[in-house]
């Protein structure tokens, strides 16, 4: 069998750089002990890797205090902690129709439990949120605005700085889901007036699955909603209020932190802008290629500006799932089909009625040959009479 062409990098980047695999293996063999609990050399050395990873991520987001950078399983995990830890009865929350279920579902549960009122701001015909629509949605009791920096369905990158300015002027907390952008698009929390950034490690940061986290700016009152061991002040009956313990309990995913450490170092060595430029050029090649094929419909993809390398499409007369199966079985091309865990995007596009789209997402190890193979495959499938 020919080697798989992997074009599902929005789900998780694959493969990882060799240095990630090597560092994870060597780290866990030599330092797979619990940090922050003991004073022997291996535990101290493990804590140094954990802290240096906090520091690198803090610098990536232009934060000030590495202890405000906390680790979790993934972005969904941190979003649950942040949203549940900020919301109080009677609050109003503004979010968008671009969100992933990692935002939609926690907020929906808060709404049906009658904790919050909720407003979803739509996106325009090109896939962007108008900051003025956010301003209009803010009420006297609005507690926070939650926005997806980059859509996992259509790849549009939102005007975070403009939205952040509006939030700061209105005195509401601004929470950004950077699952698809951290490591791909520069993020400056101070310049963008972001109060909380949530990230995952297994996408553009080139780490493994099972590791993510958040950075919470000073004075943002996120309550802790989990309790447990921290290795610090064990006689205290209540969970610790200071960061990072406030949002961390129990033993960290050390091998995940190690992989994230190596992945982020690799990204920084390659250059965030360099990686993005290469990927978006491949995306543009793909976009132009498939848009020349009859019966192919593309969604919200017209310019490389404010765009990540994610392209959604459909072929007239075919279910997206069938196209995905043919790409896999007949062409050995891996991509994602369906609603991609973002149902409101598809409601807005009208693709919910046809079971979603075929999503092709490009990563740092894709090549022009991969893109040309995908264009050829889509052309051949589209030529089949239905």
Folded structure, characterized:
The strands form three sheets. This protein has a seven-stranded mixed sheet, with helices on both faces. The chain has a four-stranded antiparallel sheet with strand order 9-10-13-12, covered by helices on one side. A two-stranded parallel ribbon has the order 1-11. It has two domains: 5-16 and 271-382, Aspartate Aminotransferase, domain 1; 18-269, Aspartate Aminotransferase, domain 2, CATH 3.40.640.10. It has eleven helices and 13 strands. With 386 residues, it is an alpha/beta fold. 38% of the residues lie in helices and 16% in strands. Helix 1 (18-31) packs antiparallel against helix 7, helix 5 (131-137) packs parallel to helix 6 (160-170) and helix 8 packs parallel to helix 11.
Short note summarizing the structure:
The chain has 386 residues and is of the alpha/beta class. It has eleven helices and 13 strands. The strands form three sheets. Strands 2-8-7-6-5-3-4 form a seven-stranded mixed β-sheet, sandwiched between helices. A four-stranded antiparallel β-sheet has the order 9-10-13-12, with helices on one face.
Judging from the principal axes of the Cα atoms, what is the shape? globular
Major pleated sheet: 7 strands, mixed
| Unreliable stretches | none
Average per-residue pLDDT, rounded, comes to 95
Q: Could you say how many structural domains there are in total? A: 2
SSE order, one letter for each helix or strand: EHHEHEHEHEHEEEHHEEHEEHEH
> Can you tell me the CATH superfamily of the largest domain?
Type I PLP-dependent aspartate aminotransferase-like (Major domain)
Count of separate DSSP helical elements: 11
Which oligomeric form is depicted?
A: single chain
CATH hierarchy: architecture of the largest domain:
3-Layer(aba) Sandwich
- The radius of gyration computed from the alpha-carbon positions, rounded to a whole number of angstroms, is 21 Å
Helix % is 25-40%
CATH class of the largest domain: Alpha Beta
Distance between the termini: 29 Å
